[in-house]
Amino acid sequence: MTTKIYGASDDLVEIEGDVEDEICCYGTDDEGAVPVLLVCSDGTILNVKYGKGGMGIWGITLLAKGGMYGGIDQCIDEDADPYSDVATFHDGLSWIIWSRDWKRIKAG
Fold it and tell me: What's the pTM value of the predicted model, to 2 decimals?
């Protein structure tokens, strides 16, 4: 079964397919929902955040590409259904680890 990841409402990240979950990312930062980092069993790493381009759209950014990664369908329309980028994966994901509290540390 394939897996897809997308945002819903203004505070939920939906995961459907081989792995299933709903992540609440309501936060208190100045921009609304808190970004969510997703680390997938194939090595793919995604950043999911509401408010893409200052609009009411969920954006998904690829940070690292794994072997089951299928791509991201970009959304540019707040009235689309879903009003979210959608990341897709080929069959076989076995787990996803997520965090709302993360920071990338770059080498000096």
Answer: 0.89
Extents of the domains making up the chain: 3-99
| Sign of the Cα pseudo-torsion (68, 55, 20, 24, in order) | positive
Question: Using 50, 70 and 90 to split pLDDT, how confident is the model at 29?
Answer: low
Q: Which amino acid is at 105?
A: I
Sheet strands (E) in the chain: 3-8, 12-16, 21-24, 36-40, 45-50, 58-64, 69-73, 86-89, 96-99
pLDDT tens profile 37-46: 999 999 999 9
3-state secondary structure of 54: helix
